[in-house]
# Entry
Amino acid sequence: MDFGLSEDQVLLKETIRRWLDAECPTSRVRAVMESTSGHDPALWSGLAGLGVPGLHVPAEYGGSGLELLDAALAAEELGAACMPGPFLACALATAALVASGHDAAAARWLPALARGESILTLAVGEEGDEWDADRLATRARGGTLTGRKPLVPYAGIADAILVAARDDAGPGVWLVERGAPGIEITALQGTDMTRRVDAVALEGAPATKIVGGRTAIDRARDAGLVLLAADAYGGARRCLDMTVKYVLEREQFGQPIGAFQAVKHQLADLAADLDPALSLWWYAAHAYDRIQERAPRHAALAKAHLTDLFDRTVRTCTELHGGIGFTWEYDLHLWFRRAVFDQSFLGEAHYHRLRAAELAGW
Amino acid sequence: MNLTYSEEYERFRDEVRQFLQASWTREDAAAQPDPDGFSGVGVGRPSERVTAFRLKAIERGYLYRHVPRRHGGSEQPPDPLKAAIIAEEFRRAKAPGEVVGQGPSMLVPTLLEHGTDKQRDFFIRDTLLGTLRWCQGYSEPSAGSDLASLRTRAVLEGDSWVVNGHKIWTSSAKDADWMFALVRTEPDQPRHDGISYLLIDMRTPGIDVRPLRQMTGDADFNEVFFDNVRVPAENLVGRRGQGWVVSRSTLKHERALIGGAHLTRRAFDGLVMLAQALEVRGQPALKDPALRTRLAALEARLLANEYQGYRLLTMSARGEDHGLAGMVMKLSSTQLGYDIAKLAMDAIGDRALLAPGEANAPAMGMFGSAYMWSLGVLIAGGAANIQRNIIAERGLGLPRDARK
# Structure
């Protein structure tokens, strides 16, 4: 019985954090987010040098062969640093490929993904906030895909897109390679400037079926929900730390504003909600890896809870900063925007709470 | 991360189960009152059967593991995992565990740390068995959160302390044999340095216990008045003027007591069953999407607290300090308890109009009473705003409040 991180996991987190402190200060975050692609290949290859994209890629496909928990610990650090780039896109694609059991596709794409040389993404959501594998409209016919995926992370730079769609047999996952005919990718202005989304239109685009059934789509969704929860925790923790530091420095009425009880209590409430929430996403990650019958429900609850909490934290922190927190120049809004992504991507809190109720048999 | 117990611990669990099967029958369990009732403050005297069982369990090393054998404990090396297994198995068997109350949880650690040999020998053993029952004399009408401003005086006259004053919110004072109290003995010293920790026999002449009826309509609390109450000088714990320091360790223990996650789980499961059973506008309340999302939001917080318990247990087992994680538990769990009770009241709908005991009130009005009690625990043992101060000051490093 041990509900804590191993020495290796602590070391992994520290290594990533130190690297992010050195290589990914907010000045660099801003440079990437103001770039056209929202992707900095040098930064990404540095992260790949630490093994981050390959953490949960099986060893036989050139990864570290670790678990989702390890990837989530990385996600927490990336959230804390507001690291821009396709981490989540690659992680979703990895989870889908691993769950598909399609050896040829995994062997073709995962080694390069783990090395940071290939970017992959997963396209699930459709118009009308639809994230359910059984209600997707994108159709596969005769080796081609037709349909619209309005919000796909980093489709524009992806070497391959895994597409959740359906054929006559039901839902499944297909793979479309970059540059295929019949695929049109439109870059979108996103609220979160550190994780880009593109609209993907498929019109008879040639595609390979990787797997049938909804299992791979659901496993990838659950992995994504846990990673978003971890990202949200990291982001919220960072906002809280920044704000504690700020209220100790900022003086009004002849004292640091952090000495006022109104300020102290708002921060204490956030800390009291945030600290136990860590245990929720740890458990959700652990369930994904080891207690699979509990995984879908815990992933849903963790995503809903943590992303709500991230939103509340960054709003309260912005308010506590006063005017400076409302400026472009001050960094808080980077996380404010990141919180919007964490909440909205893969379905909002309300949707996942209703799913959790259903899964509980209520 | 590994949530299974190793073979050594599974063997230990089997031992505990075998002991319970042999020593605590189903009939025993059925006759046992619910130890997790809502107030949990009025503790009756244990039956001979229960005391005999506890003595056996102590002999086996299952109860009072931190208390030396010569004081009636079982003196086991600290092992949070074993302690957790024992608690789980005793609860499952509905067997009496350690006596619930402020005597075992607060007084005993204090005496172990600061008491004289004579005090330990006289008080600890019977306190652990629940045959000697205690109440806590801390709060006063004008000394609540600001406990150090307390005014109940004790003046040394010959070989006795003469106590005059007024304590309030004293749970179980009517049933208690003794009180551990904070009294002012050094009025000329700065406030914290003027307080002493005194053990008072509740049968002493001059003590008047008056029940205090609380908002639930019941009277679990009391006021205690002291009119020239003479207490033997040897009943002081620690030195004169050190009562504040002496009492500190015990407040910490009470916080751990109030954070019990299994009680919150019970309240939540009760709420789900209620929502399943209740018809609201022609369908089970549980089918209402608004209620479902609120339930799921609450369960996320409940699970977070439960897993936080695993995390704290692991930290203890690894010998790590709980830090902020320990400080937030009281606030987050009592707040959650309040929100669960509130949702239950909403789910009940118009039947919340019916008072506890009214035949048509869902679950006999238990939820209405729980709704009120959820405020009681938010206030008891360091009110929520005091918890926020502790978290902000000790956990986040923000400046201390200005104090006069």
Remarks:
- Confidence is low (pLDDT under 50) at residues 37-42, 251-259 of chain B.
- Residues 134-241 of chain B form a domain with the Butyryl-CoA Dehydrogenase, subunit A; domain 2 fold (CATH 2.40.110.10).
